[in-house]
Amino acid sequence: MQSKIEGYIAEIKAFVPTSADELEQFRIKFLGRKGIIGDLFEEFKTVSPEEKRLLGKVLNECKQAAEAKFNDFKESFTQESDIASAIDLTLPGMPVAVGSRHPLSLVRKEIVEIFSRIGFTVAEGPEIEDDWHNFSALNFPEEHPARDMQDTFFIEKNSGSEKGDVALRTHTSSVQVRMMEAGKPPFRSIMPGRVFRNEAISARAHCIFHQVEGLYIDENVSFADLKQTLYYFVQELFGKGTEVRFRPSFFPFTEPSAEMDISCKICGGEGCNVCKYSGWVEILGCGMVDPNVLENCNIDPEKYTGFAFGMGIERITMLKYQIKDLRLFFENDLRFLKQFKSEII
Ligand code: 2NL
């Protein structure tokens, strides 16, 4: 019996399966319910006690060799067959997650497209500005409150004179100044960009926000051109039939100046909390470029006139999508952002 067992041990050790099937045959042959190892143990029961002492060791060695061989190869074959059965080429593909545009980017894009259709180009400029381009050229008086530390983020403050002050731009008008200084009329451009004001963050205010300003300068540009241009813009952005009205206002860089309201899109003019029960909501400021500003930029105010306007993208986006809190734009909460899926991103 001993040599028989040793024969099996040699066979087990020499065995190298090449498939899961072969390994299964091996298992049945040696370790199965009616397998060789079981039979040997049955036979073992019948031998004399002296023989048992001798045979016990080899028999156990044989059993362990068979089990070890089976376990060694089981892993490699089961893994392979698991993968094979997991790949089902008839299944539909895995969807690729596509992001979405930020609502502010969507609205900026829309504004840019509307003005492009009537010949406005897009201009950009630096976010860090000197006093001249952000304030002085725009006719801000020396003591204007916007020049105060409380309203503007200064990077360098020159004591005594404003010359040499460096700040984060508070509006994109500085881009228009640069454009006028660098070229010759006519100018017809819009300036989208980030602007910075030293304000406490709340549902209605933030220290960083986005603006689009516009400038049109040529011979014989009138207030009627301004009204018609902005009327067209509102019809395109908020839909045909949206009413507009202009209220007199004041800005240092325009004269005359106005603020433009549109009929409330939420209540249709009936009165609601968005329009504060007036039926109208303000969307932008505008006016005829002050002759002092033209002169500061080396443009002859006797020959050229122009209009300018400025709007906050956050405000327009809040109105368009009925968003109640400005802070949502800056929190990057996916539950908010995912609601602005556009078909083309
Ligand atoms: C507002 C008002 C406005 C302008 C911006 C401008 C620029 C130059 C000359 C004259 Cl270079 N004007 N920009 C004009 C009127 C209003 O913005 O409420 N913005 C959010």
Automatic annotation (TrEMBL):
<feature type="domain" description="Aminoacyl-transfer RNA synthetases class-II family profile">
    <location>
        <begin position="107"/>
        <end position="331"/>
    </location>
</feature>
<dbReference type="InterPro" id="IPR010978">
    <property type="entry name" value="tRNA-bd_arm"/>
</dbReference>
<dbReference type="InterPro" id="IPR004529">
    <property type="entry name" value="Phe-tRNA-synth_IIc_asu"/>
</dbReference>
<dbReference type="GO" id="GO:0005737">
    <property type="term" value="C:cytoplasm"/>
</dbReference>
<keyword id="KW-0067">ATP-binding</keyword>
<dbReference type="GO" id="GO:0006432">
    <property type="term" value="P:phenylalanyl-tRNA aminoacylation"/>
</dbReference>
<dbReference type="Pfam" id="PF01409">
    <property type="entry name" value="tRNA-synt_2d"/>
</dbReference>
<dbReference type="InterPro" id="IPR022911">
    <property type="entry name" value="Phe_tRNA_ligase_alpha1_bac"/>
</dbReference>
<dbReference type="GO" id="GO:0004826">
    <property type="term" value="F:phenylalanine-tRNA ligase activity"/>
</dbReference>
<dbReference type="GO" id="GO:0000287">
    <property type="term" value="F:magnesium ion binding"/>
</dbReference>
<keyword id="KW-0648">Protein biosynthesis</keyword>
<keyword id="KW-0460">Magnesium</keyword>
<protein>
    <recommendedName>
        <fullName>Phenylalanine--tRNA ligase alpha subunit</fullName>
        <ecNumber>6.1.1.20</ecNumber>
    </recommendedName>
</protein>
<dbReference type="InterPro" id="IPR002319">
    <property type="entry name" value="Phenylalanyl-tRNA_Synthase"/>
</dbReference>
<keyword id="KW-0547">Nucleotide-binding</keyword>
<keyword id="KW-0963">Cytoplasm</keyword>
<keyword id="KW-0479">Metal-binding</keyword>
<dbReference type="InterPro" id="IPR045864">
    <property type="entry name" value="aa-tRNA-synth_II/BPL/LPL"/>
</dbReference>
<keyword id="KW-0030">Aminoacyl-tRNA synthetase</keyword>
<dbReference type="InterPro" id="IPR004188">
    <property type="entry name" value="Phe-tRNA_ligase_II_N"/>
</dbReference>
<dbReference type="GO" id="GO:0000049">
    <property type="term" value="F:tRNA binding"/>
</dbReference>
<dbReference type="GO" id="GO:0005524">
    <property type="term" value="F:ATP binding"/>
</dbReference>
<comment type="similarity">
    <text>Belongs to the class-II aminoacyl-tRNA synthetase family. Phe-tRNA synthetase alpha subunit type 1 subfamily.</text>
</comment>
<keyword id="KW-0436">Ligase</keyword>
<dbReference type="InterPro" id="IPR006195">
    <property type="entry name" value="aa-tRNA-synth_II"/>
</dbReference>
<comment type="subunit">
    <text>Tetramer of two alpha and two beta subunits.</text>
</comment>
<dbReference type="Pfam" id="PF02912">
    <property type="entry name" value="Phe_tRNA-synt_N"/>
</dbReference>
<feature type="binding site">
    <location>
        <position position="255"/>
    </location>
    <ligand>
        <name>Mg(2+)</name>
    </ligand>
</feature>
